[in-house]
Amino acid sequence: MALSSSHHILLLSFLLSCYVPLGLARRHWPVGGSTRFYDFKVQTTRVTKLCKTKDIVTVNGMFPGPVIYAQEDDRIIVKVTNESPHNATIHWHGVRQRLSCWADGPSYITQCPIQAGQSFTYEFTLFQQKGTLFWHAHISWLRATVNGAIVIYPKTSVPYPFPYPYEEHVLIFGEYWHKDMLQLEKEVVASGGSPPPAEAYLINSHPGPRYNCSATDVYKIDVVPGKTYLLRLISASLNMEHFFAIAGHKLTIVEADAEYTKPFTVDRLMITPGQTINVLVKADQPIDRYDMAMGPYMSAQNVTFQNISAIAHFQYTGATLDDLSRPAQIPVYNDNLVVSTNLHMLRSLNATNLPSEIDANLFFTVGLNVEECHSSNPNKSCQGPSGGVFAASMNNVSFVKPNISLLQAYDNNINGLYTDDFPGVPLKTYDFVNGAPNNIPNDTQSLIGTKVKVLEYGSRVQLILQNTGTVTTENHPIHLHGYSFYVVGYGTGNYNPMSAKLNLVDPPYMNTIGVPVGGWAAIRFVADNPGVWFMHCHFDVHLTWGLSMAFIVKNGEGPLETLPHPPADLPSC
Ligand code: C2O
């Protein structure tokens, strides 16, 4: 059977579904989804924000970028042409990329960057996925301006499991710096210290009135009294988590990371970079203009951050507009209780395929490191704590990107680019939260390397993510490519298998989990999608510092458990 030989043949089989060997294909592949084509041009675009003008990188000159609209099981084809002078890749965050790891997009993990003047066509199926996801650049810190929504509707005549909204809106949260993002990353790395706080937070690229010179740069949603709105919240923020609230209105969460949840109603919520949350909001308040506020959640100690909220308006038709809108109440920046209460209420509508037996029991620590200063100019390049250099790690290994992609190295059996000895459990056991080494930088160093963890096809994985306390404890948004995972447990302090309570009934099915500050989260997934899958903290600065690793999931048997060959136009390094 020719099905395995290339993913172009798979594409053909969607278009000409009568030629697919149906008995086999139907069980694993959608038949009858439409194919949708998009043309993305990565460009340099001039913008003026907060009274300053700069060039940013965008897709098609838009910030936020174009929305990809689709239906469950649709085939998506995006031709990305790089008209900017910088290297680029696009990642389809949360798309599970079944048998299409080549289209995943993280630079040096599944592909080499698309170089200036080149193009690459991403092709994948939104197999059994519906809801809100997003796409973003996956190279350096370009995600700040290269991002956009992916809106996947249920199949025709399949209803939402909640009341149909009158209208829906996408709200993308971000952070803005006057500096060029590539330059900013370089400077932070060169300094060895922490990144400067953002100039402003943004809602759909608008900061709202509270910053210097931003009075009229406000995003607004017009609402009709009495109607219900679906807001698709997406956090494309770089280095911060955020609270979100609307003055006087409740938020009913119905979906997280493109999976339905049991509806629950809150006054405010926390969203980490990489997460998407759908909420229903009823316009049931007196006619007026209400603030939608996006403010910082900062769980770490001694970090300087932007403490002014971005504001957008939720504006009733018929409101008389004086200067004042009703202010939203967002929690104080370190309100961990709001975060844990919300996580506690987050439950899958239906948890299917939750593994109860486990084949691979993994335990990864997640946290910061400080490396010794080796510079002849420490004042300039060792601005981390106690004159050291900031790093970050999983199981105390700081990941180093190879110079061709891991997937190509794996697929072509190229030796010497990575090793498969990423530890399944920490090499040293200690009181991770309270007894973490802090004699900076002598005992706070990490190992450096390009290490992967190999998983057998189909293995049922449980992974404990444990925050450590070196330098500071902190909520880290950990994202896994190629899979969603069930968040079966979480807690504060060190994970203890004897006392940990796991939810094996209705845990949420996520692609990004904010591991509680000074605590742990337990996730489960079945490794049934072959390829190389990146897992990392979705704070860009932590990603830069090495807080990542990759899984290699081996092929199973037969074409439907085997990663096809690479596309012909895969960029070379
Ligand atoms: Cu949204 Cu690897 O990232």
Give a written overview of the molecule.
The protein has 573 residues and is mainly β. It contains 7 helices and 32 strands. It has helices at residues 7-15, 22-28, 181-191, 336-345, 378-381, 406-411, 540-545; strands at 35-49, 52-59, 68-71, 75-82, 90-93, 119-125, 131-137, 147-153, 167-176, 200-203, 220-223, 228-235, 241-246, 251-256, 259-266, 268-271, 276-282, 289-297, 310-316, 360-371, 389-394, 397-399, 447-449, 452-455, 459-467, 476-480, 485-492, 509-510, 512-515, 519-527, 531-537, 548-553. 51% of the residues are buried. Bound molecules: CU-O-CU linkage (C2O). CU-O-CU linkage is lined by residues 91, 93, 106, 136, 138, 274, 479, 481, 534, 536, 538. The site of CU-O-CU linkage (C2O) has 11 residues, from strand 5 and strand 31.
